[in-house]
Design brief:
The chain is of the alpha/beta class. It folds into 3 domains: about 5-225, Spore Coat Polysaccharide Biosynthesis Protein SpsA, Chain A (Alpha-Beta Complex); about 340-535, Rossmann fold (3-Layer(aba) Sandwich), CATH 3.40.50.2000; about 540-725, Rossmann fold (3-Layer(aba) Sandwich). The chain has 26 helices and 26 strands. The strands form 4 sheets. Strands 1, 2, 3, 4, 5, 6, 7, 11 and 12 form a 9-stranded mixed beta sheet that branches. An 8-stranded mixed beta sheet has the order 15-16-14-13-17-18-19-20, with helices on both faces. It has a 6-stranded parallel beta sheet with strand order 23-22-21-24-25-26, sandwiched between helices. β21, α19 and β22 form a beta-alpha-beta unit.
């Protein structure tokens, strides 16, 4: 087990973020800092001359951070402003496009128990979230970097005058505050590049030691800046050329004038060749190449001039103010203390239906409750780990390691290996990694049993959420019965595994009483005693569209037609055929228009529908088929329509119903599954049989098309019911309480 310093012995940290025109990423960097598990730290953010929304982002954190400004685009000047405001025993630097591992400070702090330690840096993960950007680095007196093996012991290089010394990456570096002030902080000549390298060298020369801590991880994105483009092409070379030339000529003198000249010529030649290559390959224009070449010439000249001035005056210190008196430490608020992993194979924007959408909304709601959230989903292509909008996103897939584990999981839990056990293995591999974050609980859907092995994991609590199961879906999947081998080898095994899980899962999350009852009936397993019901929640679509319910009603009353929406896949379980029958019955009514969204209507599908129910969808002049629309388009359809049809033959909950209610639209539905709990008499109408649905929906729609009074009253009831029961906030509060209880129960077992 990793040993950390007792809280009482932990040095206080001042984390400094220096930012310039990174408002789109700055919020995540700050949010990531406040997920740290550490007893005593503050956050200092120094904003350069930004012209974007950075100040607006920082204003959201008023009172929780030290918010300072730097009026020049110079990283060393900005860093010194941060140091001058730092009240912690240690100053740690983090880039504005980076997020720390929650135990970052815990690992760094261990080394500061040694009074000779002047600086500690960790390992940095690149923008993929799965590959290293930088691990151990040593530099020479010309600022050239070398990358030794992880087993290299840097302690041998910690002595004054060493030709090679440990050098830390700026975004994952920390320094004893007293040591920084002793050497005068950062040298303002290093506006960009080699600023922290210069500090590390001067600290070592002053007798301080620099160390690496591999476990202190930073996840570093790659963002455009005033120096480089989003494709990593240089916009200007001038600041970096000044820094490198200054470094070579100032610190390389002890190596001899001839070596200094050789290094300067090599550096200049390397840049000019790189500029030519970029232009020749079309990555930059010839005009841009000329400008970059001029940057090399001017930067070299200015770097030499500044280095000779420093040598002439015997400059050894940095340029920070020595009389700065920081305000007292501004302690960060303690974190919630709960870290959750939500597992879902699909996730928006690639998949925005069913479980994927519920997981996305729940993740956002839990985040807003102050809970640390990780979402594990399938990677579209390459695996990744990213921190976006305050949520950790883990895109994973099959690897050689998971292939071996899948065979074991398949045998142990008696599930198919391909498509099921291999995904479980990938999930478990990522959960093992997340345990280093202090993971408390794993929540996964019963569909595909995605994280089934976590039920037996002694380190974390596990919750299974009830959605449609293979057992519930089988009556609506005739092709499963027609494909006998598939049915026996895959479907039957999955249902047996579902039964086993339902019989032993310690914590079960349900979105309706109906799904609990249906599962108990179909699977023959009692789960009600372990199940906790928290209804789905969804965003307020009316508010999101900038509309009030009154405004929508006024717009509807002025319209000449009543707009009716069906949103769902064209499959029997969703009852699309019943919605088409309603539209066909009202085909001659000029006051009614129908919209269908969720499935692309091909010629082949249209012919198949006509063969099955006798209606050619494309012959319906009163209907528009929008196809498979994205989330933004679907939300607009809900807001634009007056009534929503939901004739599903089975729904464990009925997410479409509350989406309709959030848009102020009454719902006409079959009284099936969870819909009976969602839609009451104030929000819509429920029908016991399919024929009753078609007959009564036709009558109600025809009446409302000519008299909106009753519909307006029901629209009010639908919206009020949404606000009182089905918001994302209400869902997140309920689920968060259940998760906390599940963690508590596991700890007492």
């Amino acid at each position: 087990m990793t040993r950390f310093l007792p809280d009482a012995q932990c040095p206080s940290f001042s984390i400094v973020i220096n930012t310039l025109n990174r408002g789109s990423l700055l919020g995540d960097a700050i949010q990531g800092v406040f997920q740290l598990d550490y007893p005593s730290f503050e956050l200092v953010v120094v904003n350069g001359p930004s012209t974007d929304n950075s100040e607006d982002v920082l204003a959201r954190w008023h009172g929780r951070i030290k918010h300072l400004r730097c009026d020049v685009a110079n990283l060393s000047v900005s860093r010194n402003v941060g140091i001058e405001a730092a009240a912690g025993d240690v100053v740690a630097f983090l880039d504005d496009d980076a997020v720390p591992h929650p135990l970052w400070l815990r690992y760094l702090s261990r080394h500061y128990a040694n009074p000779s330690t002047g600086g500690v840096g960790g390992y940095t993960v690149d923008n993929t979230g799965v590959r290293w950007q930088v691990r151990k680095t040593v530099c020479d007196r010309f600022g050239n970097a070398y990358f030794p093996d992880d087993l290299f012991d840097e302690r041998a290089l910690n002595f004054p005058g060493t030709p090679l010394y440990p050098s830390l990456l700026g975004t994952n570096s920390s320094f004893r505050t007293a040591a920084l002030r002793e050497i005068g902080g950062f040298d303002h000549t290093f506006a960009y590049l080699l600023d922290e390298t210069d500090v590390c060298m001067r600290l070592v020369d002053a007798g301080w030691h620099i160390h690496y801590e591999p476990a202190a991880m930073i996840f570093h994105q790659f963002a455009e800046s005033h120096i480089r483009s989003h494709t990593r092409k240089p916009k200007t070379l001038y600041p970096s050329v000044v820094s490198k030339t200054y470094y070579i000529n100032r610190h390389g003198q002890r190596e001899g004038f001839d070596k200094v000249a050789e290094q300067l010529a090599a550096y200049r030649g390397e840049l000019l060749r790189a500029n030519a290559w970029l232009a020749d390959h079309g990555d930059i224009s010839q005009q841009h190449r000329v400008q970059l070449d001029l940057d090399v010439e001017q930067g070299s000249e200015d770097g030499l001039r500044r280095s000779y001035a420093a040598l002439a005056t015997g400059k050894t210190h940095g340029d920070m103010r020595i009389d700065a008196t920081p305000e007292p430490l501004l302690p960060a608020h303690p974190r919630e203390g709960l870290r959750v992993a939500l597992v879902s194979q699909g996730f928006p924007p690639e998949n925005d239906a069913g479980i994927a959408r519920w997981t996305s909304l729940l993740a956002q709601g839990l985040r807003d409750q102050g809970i640390d959230v990780h979402v594990i989903s399938r990677a579209g292509q390459a695996p990744f780990r990213q921190y976006r909008d305050g949520i950790w996103h883990h895109g994973i897939g099959r690897t050689p390691a998971t292939a071996t584990a899948a065979t074991t999981i398949s045998a142990r839990y008696e599930v198919p290996e391909a498509g099921v056990a291999d995904w479980m293995a990938a999930v478990q591999q990522e959960i093992a990694f997340l345990k280093t974050f202090g993971l408390d609980i794993v929540s996964f859907p019963i569909w595909d049993l995605e994280a089934l092995p976590s039920i037996d994991d002694q380190d974390v609590a596990a919750v299974v959420s009830l959605h449609t199961t293979y057992g519930l879906a089988r009556p609506y999947k005739p092709e499963w019965s027609e494909r006998i081998i598939y049915g026996r080898a895959f479907v039957d095994r999955m249902i047996a595994a579902e039964n086993a899980l339902l019989g032993r899962a310690p914590a079960v999350l349900a979105n309706s009483e109906a799904v609990v009852a249906e599962i108990e009936q179909i699977h023959g397993v009692a789960v009600a005693d372990r199940a906790h019901v928290v209804p789905h929640g969804t965003p307020d679509l009316l508010a999101g569209a900038g509309l009030s319910l009154e405004g929508k009603a006024a717009r509807r009353d002025q319209a000449s037609v009543l707009k009716v929406l069906f949103a769902g896949r064209f499959e029997p379980r969703k009852g699309y055929d019943l919605a088409l029958r309603v539209a066909a019955r009202l085909a001659d009514d000029p006051a009614v228009r129908f919209s269908f969204a969720g499935t692309n209507l091909s010629d082949a599908l249209a012919k198949d529908i006509k063969r099955q129910i006798g209606i050619d969808p494309r012959s319906l002049g009163n209907a528009v088929f929008h196809g498979d629309v994205d989330r933004a388009a679907l939300d607009r359809l809900f807001v634009e329509h007056d009534v929503v049809l939901m004739p599903s033959r089975f729904e464990s909950f009925g997410l479409v119903a509350i989406e309709a209610m959030s848009a102020g639209a009454p719902v006409l539905a079959l009284e099936r599954g969870g819909l009976a709990e969602v839609v009451d008499a104030s929000a819509g109408r429920l029908f016991a049989t399919e024929e009753a649905f078609v007959d009564e929906a036709v009558k109600i729609i025809a009446r409302w098309a000519r008299d909106r009074t009753g519909m307006n009253q029901m629209a009010q009831g639908a919206y009020d019911r949404f606000l009182s029961r089905y918001t994302v906030e209400a869902m997140a509060r309920g689920v968060a309480d259940f998760y906390r209880n599940a963690v508590l129960q596991r700890s007492t077992r």
